[in-house]
Input
Amino acid sequence: MHHDQGVLFPDSLMAEVKHRFHGVNHDFNGRERLYFDNAGGSYRLKAAVERLARIDAIPDNAERIHEVAAYLKQVQAAGTADVRTILNAQGGSVYAALTASGAMFDMVRAVAENVPGSNMVTTALEHPSSFDATALYAQRLGRELRVARSNPATGGVDVDKIVRLVDQDTVLLNVIYASNISGAKLDVDEIVRQARLVKPDLYIIVDAVQHAPHGLIDLQKTPVDGINIAPYKFFGCRGSGIAWLSDRASLLPHHKLNGKTPEFWDLGSSAPWQFAVVSEIVDYVCWLGGLSGPAADGQGAARRALFERGMEAIALHERALLSRLLGGSAAVPGLRNMPHVKVFLDAGGLASRDLILAIGFDHLGHTQAVREYEKRGVIVYERVASSLYSKRMLDSFGLDGAVRVSPLHCNSAGDIDQFLRVTQELAETWNRRAAQADEDDFRSQCDGPQPSA
Output
């Protein structure tokens, strides 16, 4: 069944979903607001925050032999299995780092320092942790850095623009799953397939931080060598980055204690709460999946099947929210039809995009717009060329900036309508001010200088 415009959660489910998250309609001080900057953070699952506190309060070291230590080992083992559930990964190594960016640098280093070749390939849309890591080791090791250009119409990168840069001497292909400015999803399936036709043993690393909360990842269909996610952008908690490495990538020389097995990547004592939070994320998505089909025993393939159904429900609800943002409803016009508002990078079907938009106003600057939104109880984010996190991507699109809008599946159609009403009011207010300023300027020119007495 095709759902081109998505499918909203029923009202009763929407209420339950909101109840499971902190701060969906209020900030931590209890003030009403909409947090539409989930591409920079994420609404937190109450269960994830509570589990972090409960597990991290345990003083025991998991590397001991007593009962509580054994329990912490079980927590870690379950979380490790759930990383594989999220990715549909088999084998390989799961690596828990402080941040997803740190894990990315470690993976790139291992490949760059140990795989022969003369060039490394990435794209203009990468997060700095991916782009800068690839650029750093290309420069340090004397490799050519090849960068695929973005498509300024779709906000993504075309498959052929990436694959044509790959050859038999390519050390690494490092590519993002979805843009964190436009929301455009790259065709990772086809990128992997075509790149491996050029070089079958090519090492490929994927940044899935932005995409993971919005859609399925399936490493059985897209066999890569390294991939990272950030639990704090996936309904979880800050202070954790998770990576998975393939069997061959995990064996590449890397920082580790000599006594550990060759594929082991963690350094120091583990933090069991990192794995407990991952399990809470998967439990939640599986709960959603269980609402749309028969329950499962929660183990192995059955747990992945539930997870897949849950992520499909999330993706369809978010597609419906994106459709409403762009097209509006009987209650309020959408961004595409709103005078004095521009939707950037607005090409391609809804299914090719995650729930992220870049917009601008005719008479209101990006940074000032963010401040005006906040005054009206809406949190969005300015992407401007002066930011190290934005410049390269914006330049590739030919933009000087944008207001990034990124709701999450725990937002409702009513939340979208509220955002649209605020946006309409901002556009109309600043258009009137601009018109008044033009009129005042015209009058001053007509009046001319007054004669002296």
